[in-house]
């Protein structure tokens, strides 16, 4: 496919996200996503963050396989999770589950610094390459167990998790700054909910269910 083809499909994806947001007003409490989020989605080419054989489907509003039993999330879900995070230009963000780097690239447009953890070494290697080619200099990727967070870089203004644990890992709550926000899917595979977690200035935690989702499981390699 040519770049003009991708441009047209990219524009259709943005229009579909905008339409689906209107239908999700009941869950989101608003009919449109933040302008900065939509600008980031418009700027980052999703097709460079999917396997080459799937590029014709890059702008379809569906998850796509990226190998190792993992997927790149549906564009609408990426948009909603990013919007819920309310990333500010001065924020430091922790991402759990780099995949091939698409969500990282979106966050790099919005935050001062992004730290991303990927369990699978080959995915982390590819993500670094793809992010570098897109000029995402403010993203650092490491291989590791996302359930532990990144203590050396903590605390974080924002935390986003792109795989689902049954329960929110305590380390991620601990590494979230007072006044911070976390967006995470959690629950049993058949009953996952997208959660917004907020820590107030005194360190008290509140959670809000947004809607039901289906993510791959967040693996804790030391829990077995």
In short:
The chain is α/β, with parallel strands linked by helices.
Would you spell out the secondary-structure blueprint of this structure?
Elements (H helix, E strand, L loop, with lengths): L2 H21 L1 H4 L6 H9 L20 E4 L2 E3 L2 H11 L6 E5 L5 H9 L2 E6 L2 H13 L5 E5 L12 E6 L8 H5 L1 E11 L5 E8 L5 E9 L11
Parallel strand pairs: 3-4, 3-6, 4-5, 6-7
Antiparallel strand pairs: 1-2, 7-8, 8-9
Please give a structural write-up.
- The structure is a single chain.
- This protein is of the alpha/beta class and 224 residues long.
- It has a single domain (3-213), classed as Rossmann fold.
- The chain contains seven helices and nine strands.
- The chain has helices at 3-23, 25-28, 35-43, 75-85, 102-110, 121-133, 170-174, and strands at residues 64-67, 70-72, 92-96, 113-118, 139-143, 156-161, 176-186, 192-199, 205-213.
- The strands form two sheets. Strands 5-4-3-6-7-8-9 form a seven-stranded mixed beta sheet.
- A hairpin with a 2-residue loop joins strand 1 (64-67) and strand 2.
- Helix 1 (3-23) packs across helix 4 (75-85) and helix 3 crosses helix 5 (102-110).
- The longest helix is centred in the first third of the chain and has 21 residues, at 3-23.
- The radius of gyration is 16 Å and the shape is globular.
- The model has no long low-confidence stretch (mean pLDDT 95).
């Amino acid at each position: 496919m040519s770049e003009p083809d991708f441009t047209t499909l990219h524009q259709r994806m943005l229009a579909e996200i905008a339409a689906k947001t209107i239908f999700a007003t009941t869950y989101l409490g608003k009919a449109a996503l933040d302008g900065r989020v939509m600008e980031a989605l418009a700027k980052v080419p999703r097709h460079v963050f999917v396997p080459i054989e799937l590029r014709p489907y890059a702008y379809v509003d569906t998850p796509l396989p990226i190998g190792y039993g993992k997927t790149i999330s549906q564009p609408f879900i990426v948009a909603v999770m990013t919007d819920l995070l309310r990333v500010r230009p001065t924020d430091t963000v922790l991402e759990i589950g780099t995949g091939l780097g698409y969500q990282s690239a979106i966050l790099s447009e919005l935050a001062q610094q992004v730290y991303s953890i990927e369990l699978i070494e080959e995915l982390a290697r590819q993500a670094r390459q793809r992010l570098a080619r897109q000029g995402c200099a403010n993203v650092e990727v490491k291989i590791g167990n996302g359930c532990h967070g990144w203590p050396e870089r903590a605390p974080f203004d924002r935390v986003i998790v792109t795989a689902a644990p049954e329960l929110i890992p305590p380390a991620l709550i601990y590494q979230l700054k007072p006044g911070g926000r976390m967006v995470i899917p959690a629950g049993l595979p058949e009953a996952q909910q997208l959660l917004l977690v907020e820590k107030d200035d005194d360190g008290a935690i509140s959670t809000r269910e947004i809607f039901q989702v289906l993510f791959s499981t967040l693996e804790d390699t030391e829990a077995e």
